[in-house]
Amino acid sequence: MNDDVVAEILLRLPSDAVLRSRTVCKAWRRITTSPAFLAAHARLRPLEIIVQRHGVSGAQLDTIPLPTLDETRRRCLQVRYPEYTGPPEPCWRGYSLIGSCEGLLLFERGVGIDHFVCNPITRRWTMLPRPTGDFSQLLGFYLHGPSGEHRLLFHTDDQQGSHYICSPQVAGTRRLGQAIPVHGGFWTENPVVYLNHRGRLHWLRHPPVVFSTDDAQRPEAGDKILAFDTVSETFRRISPPPPRSDRYFGEQFFLLETDGKLSMTDILKGSMDLWVLEDYSNDRSWTRRLRVDLPPSLLRASWAMNSGMDGQNVILLGASSSCSVGLYDLTRKRLLKQIYFVTSGWPGDSVRRHRTPLRALVFRDSLERHTPLHARDSLEWHAFFDLRHPNKYAWSSGDQSLGAGHSGGDNVCLQKDPQKECPG
C-alpha cells in the first residue's frame, strides 16, 4: 500500500491506536507524525464531555461522546498526576481540572498556586511559570490564532494589579499593563467562568478593576460584560441585555454563542431567556430570541455552555445539585438527554453512592505536538515537566520517580505504558 492509502486507514483509528502504530515501522511513524496527518486526525476526533471525578482512589477523568451522551461508550483517561513532595500544605485538594482548549487540559494545584497543562493522550505535562505577585487568578485558557500558541491570561495582586500572559510554548510571563483594583481585597472565583467567542474572551464576573478607558464616574462597571481581544490584547466593556422586571436573588446568567453571535441566557424561576447581541459593535442591539420553561430536572440549572456541535442549536445545561448534565435543543425547546455522574468507594459508603463534585468541559483529543518549553523529542511514551522547583514534584512508578536521574535540565521524563481503557 502506498502512503496515501495507509494514511487514510490510520486517520480512522482512535488516538491511542495511532500512537501504538508508530512502533510498527519507520514509514508509519513518518506518516503519523506529519503535521498534515496530525491536523486531519484532530479534526476527525469526536467531541466529548470530560469530567473529573474525585474519590478515595484519587481523581480520574471520564469522557462521554457529546452528541449522544452514550454512557456505554464512556472511557477513562489514564492520567497520572505529578506527585507533590514539597512541604505539607493545609487543605490539600489535589489537582483540579479547570480548563480545556484544543486537545490540552489545564489543571490547578491548590487555589492560584501552580498550574499545569497536560495532553492526556500523549501524556505530556508542562508546569507553567507563575506571574508576579503573591496570588494570581487565572482568567482564561485560549489558542492564540496568529502564533498557534496556547496561552493563559492571569490577573495578579502585584502593586500594579496587572494582567499577565504565559504560554506552555514560551518561556516566562508577559505583563499587559496596569488594571487598578477598586477594592481592598483580592477577588477570587474558582474556576473563573468565561466564553471564548471569535478570539475574544468574555466574562460576566471579573476581578473589579479600573482601566484607563473606563468612565471616571463609574470606574468599576461591575454590571457590564468584560471582553478581551486575544489578538490586539485590549479590553472592552459591553452593556448586558436589560434585566427582567421581576429580578431577585437567584437569577443566573451565562454567556453563549448563538448563530455565530454573542448571546446570554437568563435563568430565573425555572424559565430561561436567550438574548443575542445582533451587532457586536453596538451594545444596544440585544434582542430576546426566546423564552423556554426548563424541564423539572433542570429547574435549578447552575451552568450553561455551548456544546460545540456545529450546525446544531444545542447547548449543555448542568445542575451541580444533582451532578447532572443535559443536552438541550433550543430550536425544538426540549431536553434531548440527561445523564448523572456519581462516584463510589468513599470510606463507610457501603450502601449508597456519593455524588461527585461536577466539573464538565467540552474536549476533543489531539495528537498534535504542543511542544512545551525546552521539551525533548522522544520515540518513547513520555511525560514531560517544566519544573521551576524540581524538588517539589515527582512522579512515582514502582521504584522510579521524576526526581530520579535528573541531570540539571528543565525536563524529567519517565517512560509510560500506552493508554488503557478503565474497567467497567
Automatic annotation (TrEMBL):
Signal peptide boundaries: none
Pfam families attached to this UniProt entry: F-box, FBA_1
Domain F-box: 1-41
Matching NCBIfam families: F_box_assoc_1
Name used for this protein in its record: F-box domain-containing protein
Organism: Panicum virgatum
